[in-house]
Structures are given as structure tokens and as C-alpha cells.
Write a structure and sequence with these properties.
155 residues; Thiol Ester Dehydrase, Chain A; 33% helix; 7 strands; alpha+beta; single chain
């Protein structure tokens, strides 16, 4: 897994194709966790899961992987990998995320140390989505896959 950023081109294309609802936009290069392969509806796709600074204290703990608070994290909120915000991605929209601060290094180490648990939780959530139990805040996974496949067909 890698910490990455997603290009603005991706978000603009999602807006144009009306599959942008519930996506967490870049906001100056929001880091996301790139998971190379997850199974969704019998096919493997690359997914990214955004890091969120202010996950509500009411959010069930099984919806995110907790990380140490960052400077933007409000009191009583959590910073973490928010599984319900995952979405599919193609390599052409993935950009490097510069890990330069000690906090980023700490976060990356925690993610690396818990890689299998994070992947398993994301895969379990995708199974819930497949069975119709998708959280209302989850991006349009099917719409984004269709957009990405259409994009491949036109290239």
C-alpha cells in the first residue's frame, strides 16, 4: 500500500460524468491509501481510501482505521482511514504523495504495520456494498467503474 494523491483531472471527470457525490475532493492534495487489488462484483480493481481528519465521534469504529490525530483533527473527533469513502481508481489519476514530515512517516509506518487488517476491512465493506448494504456516504463505486471503463475504451 502507498500513500498517494488523486489528480484533480479525476475529480473533474467524475463531476462531468455525475459520479462525484460523496467523493472527498483533493483539498490541496489530500492523502489517500492506494490498495492495489480488491474484489468487487467478481472483478479486481484498484481502490483508494481517503484519510480523514475529522471523523465524527458517532461514527462506528468498524467504519474506519484510527490513526493519531493530525493538526486539523477537532477535539473528540478521529483521524483515520475511512473505509466507507473508498472508490475505484486507475493509475493515470494516481500521483505521488511526498512523505516529508515526521507525522507522515509515523502514519505510513502504522498503515504498513496494519496492512492486512486494512485490506480485509475494505474488502469486507465492498462485500456489504455488493449485497446492497452501502452507506449513504459511500461514493458511486459502480458509476466510477463505468466511467473508468469507458475512459479505457476511448484511449
Amino acid at each position: 500500500m502507498r500513500l498517494v494523491k488523486i489528480s484533480n483531472e479525476f475529480f473533474n471527470k467524475c463531476k462531468k460524468n455525475n459520479v462525484h457525490k460523496e467523493l472527498m475532493f483533493n483539498e490541496g492534495g489530500r492523502p489517500s491509501v492506494l490498495i492495489v487489488k480488491l474484489k468487487y462484483k467478481e472483478q479486481y480493481h484498484k481502490f483508494v481510501v481517503p484519510l480523514r481528519s475529522n471523523i465524527s465521534p458517532k461514527t462506528p469504529k468498524d467504519q474506519y482505521f484510527s490513526l493519531p490525530p493530525n493538526p486539523k483533527t477537532k477535539p473528540h473527533h478521529s483521524h483515520g482511514i475511512h473505509y466507507i469513502k473508498l472508490f475505484p481508481i486507475d493509475d493515470m489519476y494516481v500521483q505521488s504523495y511526498l512523505i516529508s514530515e515526521s507525522f507522515d512517516i509515523l502514519v505510513k509506518k502504522i498503515i504498513d504495520d496494519n496492512e492486512s487488517a486494512i485490506i480485509q476491512s475494505c474488502q469486507e465493506y465492498l462485500k456489504q456494498c455488493e449485497s446492497g448494504n452501502k452507506h449513504f456516504m459511500t461514493p458511486d463505486i459502480d458509476g466510477i467503474i463505468d466511467m473508468l471503463n469507458t475512459n479505457k475504451d476511448t484511449n
